[in-house]
Amino acid sequence: MPLPDAVLPSLLHGAFPGVMIGDKAIVGHGHRFEPRSPIDGQPTAQVGAAGLDDLDHAIDAADDAHASWRTVPAPRRGELVRRVGDLVRRHKAELAELITLEAGKIPAESAGEVQEWIDMCDFAVGVSRQLHGLTIASERPEHQLLEQWRPLGAIGVISAFNFPAAVWAWNAMLGLVCGDSIVWKPSEQTPLIALACHEMVRRAAAGFDEAPSAISCVVIGGADIGAALAADERLPLISATGSVAMGRKVAVTVGERLGRSLLELGGNNAMIVTPSADLEMAIRAIVFSAVGTCGQRCTSLRRLFVHRSIADKLVGRLEQAYASLSIGDPRTPGVLVGPLVNEPAYERMQASLRAAVAQGGKVVCGGERLTAGAPSGVYVQPAIVRMPEQTPILQEETFAPLLYVVEYDELEEAIELQNDVPQGLSSAIFTSDVREAGRFTGPAGSDCGISNVNIGTSGAEIGGAFGGEKDTGGGRESGSDSWKQYMRRATTTINYGSTLPLAQGIKFGE
Ligand code: NAD
């Protein structure tokens, strides 16, 4: 299928560059590979992946770029990001097309992801004028005690396939206004959208004199490049998004060198539906959260705790809603569920279904492979399985449209079950009872980073801080005060008097 050339760099010797160091395009010294679209399993292009030496050069260049970028006034850095936002608005359709091609999302969700990037640009421009510090009362006469936020350095970003633009945008748009430069290792599944994202920054930086082009670098490669990025001492912060298994490795590597890591890892998200819930709203929210992006969002709904008195009715309605889902090539108008990313994802879904049945589960619907789409894409009927209790398979994140339903009697029991998994990303309750909502959002309620009332588990706005607890990694990105992670806090004491009083009233040699 034709690629949207207007947002991609030029081919070099028949391949897309796997390394972009600002405006320098390089066919990397790694292997040449062909990313495949989940839509039909066919190769989309050739990419010359980065080798370890390319990564080294990119980090060097980003480090140099940071040395001058950090001195540019923050509102001017915001002006660069404003220009990026203008370009993204102009090219929204082409960028969304690439997301659909490489991640298999339906166009509405791809456009939503690009919109999230635009929103991040606007947010970051605002932040660029609000990198506030503090003035603190000093205990000493004629002293000022200040807290300031200073640029951190070149930062490393590792991202997953399922949000191939937005996750980088959360990090990069804020990082840039904070005075950092960015070295990005995207998922090897989504190299073209990564090149297009970089291309927007490259074009915005061209002709913007204060911006050295290497403030944005991309190195396309696999886990080995990600691991080398995490280990590099020139990068004070590694922001890594992906599976818990990946995050554990990155955390150890970065921890060993006492670097800072920002981890956004897997979720195992739950919703509680109480007897007072508005069922029409709950059903819409459940379907979007469980089958949207074919169940491949970190915030996808995986566990549904339903009060016993309404369970049969709710599951019956869900079964009907699932039967009417249109599944297939995401580019076909009306399709709501696109493909799984690849064959292993399908095998993992089948393995989880088998485990659920072996643990006492009854399949209500779904799980079958469909041939509705192009021949080699992986299309599945989203599945619902009723479980007798929260069995071991419910402790795992299966990255597919597979929803487990468990009945409960008391709200406390449902909250306990919801929290009783290793992950802690997103959670929701559907209730019309303010007391139930209060218990869920209170200190003994949901232990997740995201706790919603009468909204599904997925589809967060950028204004809040995004992230989760426990195995989800503890990181917070995007809105609120997440920008602080891309800066270092400096405490500064200024003595404008002519004596030298010591803190705590210490007398030393007087
Ligand atoms: P993945 O863990 O397979 O890969 C993520 C990234 O990590 C890729 O760029 C990959 O090349 C890199 N990587 C893999 N091993 C590495 C290593 N040892 N060192 C350094 N880098 C390494 O994940 P995926 O399949 O691309 O994405 C799905 C997972 O991501 C799910 O678990 C999902 O929940 C999670 N995710 C989390 C969030 C969040 O914000 N919490 C957002 C999106 C996706």
UniProtKB/TrEMBL annotation:
Keyword terms, alphabetized: NAD, Oxidoreductase
Alphabetized GO MF terms: aldehyde dehydrogenase (NAD+) activity
EC numbers: 1.2.1.3
InterPro entries named in the record: Ald_DH/histidinol_DH (IPR016161), Ald_DH_C (IPR016163), Ald_DH_CS_GLU (IPR029510), Ald_DH_N (IPR016162), Aldehyde_DH_dom (IPR015590), ALDH7A1-like (IPR044638)
Domain of life from the UniProt record: Bacteria
Pfam families: Aldedh
Active site per UniProt: E264
Residues annotated as domain Aldehyde dehydrogenase: 31-489
Record note on quaternary structure: Homotetramer.
PANTHER family: ALPHA-AMINOADIPIC SEMIALDEHYDE DEHYDROGENASE
Assigned protein family: Belongs to the aldehyde dehydrogenase family.
Entry protein name: aldehyde dehydrogenase (NAD(+))
Upper taxonomic lineage: Bacteria, Pseudomonadati, Planctomycetota, Planctomycetia, Pirellulales
